[in-house]
Each structure stands twice: as C-alpha cells, then as structure tokens.
Design brief:
Blueprint lengths: L8 E4 L4 H12 L7 E2 L11 H8 L4 E4 L7 H6 L1 H22 L3 E5 L25 H24 L3 E6 L1 E3 L12 H15 L3 E5 L5 E2 L1 E3 H14 L6 E3 L5 E2 H12 L4 E5 L14 H7 L7 H15 L1
Parallel strand pairs: 1-2, 1-3, 3-4, 4-5, 5-10, 6-9, 7-12
Antiparallel strand pairs: 8-11
Length: about 300
C-alpha cells in the first residue's frame, strides 16, 4: 500500500470495461478519489495534444488503456479508424507524460500484436518475428507502437515506460454489443437471449477451432497494479492464464452457464481470426508473483449473471 500513498494516478479509458475495473482496484489499494484522474472521452480527446498535456499535469503515474477497440467484426470494418485513433492517442499521451516529467508510464498492449504464425505459447521475445493476423493487425501494430515509443524514450530520455500485454479479457461491465463486443461478451448475450426465447439453435461466427487465452477482468486489473508496483523493465510482459481454450469449448461453456440447451451451429463463412492464441506467463509469475485466481467456468457464470441483472 505504501507505493500508492500520496500518488496521483491518471487512468485513460477509465470509463471503459477494463479501465473501470482498474479504477476499482486502485480504490481498493487506498487511492482516494481526488488522487484519481479519470477523464471521459468528452472531457479529454486524447487525439489532441493540448488535452493530453492537460490530463497528465501533476500526476505521478499514467495507466494508458484508451484505444479504439472491439470485436473482430469492428476491426474488419474499421481497421483505419482502429489504427489511427489508437496510435495517435498512445503517441500523444506518452509524449505529454514524458514532457511533464511523469515518473512512470504503463502502456497496455494486445495479443493482436503477436505474429499470426508465432509458436505457442506466445513468448514476449517473439513479438517481432512476423506479421500479425490481417483482420486485427492494424490495431495490433498501433498498440506495438506504444512499446517502440516507450523503449525509445527510455533510451533517449531515461523515461520509465513499461508495456503489458493482456490476453482476451472478459467479465462484468463488458460491452455486450453484437457488432462491437469481444468473443465472450458476444456469446453471453447471444446464449442468454436464446435461452430466454427458447430458441432451438444459436449460430456462432467461424469454425470453433480457433483458440484463445482468457483472463477474468478483475484478475487482469490486479496484475496491472502489481506491474505498477513491481515491474520496471523495458521488455514487454504477458498477462494471461497460460491456458488455451477452443472457441467451441468456450461456446459450450457459455451455453451451459446461460441455460441454453439447443444446437450450436457454426458459420464458417465468418472469420476465425488468429488460429491459435495462448501466452507464456513465466515472466509475469517471476516478476509480479501473479497467478490468476478465477477459473474460467466461475468467471463465465459471473459474467452471465451480471449481464442478466444489468441489461
């Protein structure tokens, strides 16, 4: 707790899914409301240099999450918007923090940055071994720019910037939108509504063969704060469960938690995205002592229950 005493923290993207849980975790650490800077996108457009200079003024730590992100459908339709907004906000916020003398910057990356053909589990040193999956690659490259910028600023200015790469996050407060949500939230909405309607079947994008590494959002927020406290290296750090789950297995699990008993059909004309994703978590275990606490089934059930109660 002493790390957070008298520390003023800026969280960009604080009103989004992941950001709201990081704010909760900061409050649990004893960071008081006046020491939390959490502007909305209306209050500070982070694509504007003056706005970035204003929000970093007087803070001791920046946790930068703000990005233009969503599910695979959104990235397929708007790759240019995802790249430009994400990259520009990252460039301007970090530069403003460096110029303002902020002692530490925590950049949040994405597994979309990893090469499509990288060997599993993804190790941090394989990040530049090839091109990412084309559908989400523009967003992945934009997030990788945070890492490049942070390492360059460290070499030239002695700026302490770290880069964390979380896997697919899920949990309460996610964006349950058919067009823009990530896979767990999209499945939760679809199966809950199908169960309530008594539907005979649900159609899911892709083949079900793709795999992902899933991390409950509260566990991910704890990992970020541990990195704030304990990690200061230039090299990126994976945050994940280290467990590979097929989308078909995930869909069956969500269906069971939602009480759906019909048929699951697969639309192979829709993209699977990267064929397989699972990260090596050895460095997070070594440097942070981080271990996820929430089993996938438990986290999915909590997410289903939250969605039913908050629609």
């Amino acid at each position: 707790m002493s790390f957070w005493r008298d520390r003023r923290v800026l969280v960009t993207g604080a009103h989004g899914f992941f950001g709201s849980h990081i704010v909760d975790a900061l409050r649990a650490r004893g960071v008081p409301g006046p020491a939390l800077v959490a502007p909305t996108s209306c209050e500070a457009d982070l694509r504007d240099r003056a706005a970035c200079e204003r929000v970093v003024r007087g803070v001791d730590l920046v946790i930068h999450l703000a990005a233009r992100t969503g599910g695979i459908g959104l990235h397929a339709e708007h790759p240019g918007e995802a790249f430009f907004d994400t990259a520009l906000a990252g460039l301007l916020v970090m530069d403003a923090a460096r110029r303002a003398g902020v002692p530490k910057f925590v950049g949040i990356g994405t597994t979309c940055s990893y090469p499509r053909a990288a060997p599993l589990p993804f190790r941090e040193d394989s990040l530049w071994d090839g091109a990412p999956e084309p559908v989400t690659g523009a967003y992945g490259f934009a997030k990788s720019m945070l890492l490049v910028q942070g390492q360059a600023y460290r070499r030239e200015y002695g700026f302490e910037a770290i880069h964390l790469i979380p896997v697919n996050l899920y949990g309460p407060r996610d964006r349950f939108d058919e067009r823009a949500s990530h896979v767990v939230a999209a499945l939760v909405r679809r199966f809950v509504e199908a169960a309530e309607a008594g539907a005979d079947s649900v159609t899911v994008w892709g083949t079900g063969a793709a795999t992902r590494d899933f991390l409950y959002v509260e566990d991910a927020a704890e990992a970020v704060l541990l990195a704030c406290e304990r990690y200061g290296d230039a090299e990126p750090l994976n945050l994940g469960s280290g467990q590979e789950t097929k989308i078909a297995e995930l869909a069956a699990l969500v269906a069971a938690c939602a009480g759906f008993q019909g048929e699951i059909r697969w639309d192979a004309s829709r993209p699977d995205g990267t064929p397989r994703r699972c990260v090596d978590v050895a460095r997070a275990r070594e440097h942070l002592g981080f271990e996820p606490r929430t089993p996938l089934r438990t986290g999915i059930q909590r997410t289903v229950d939250w969605y039913r109660g908050h629609r």
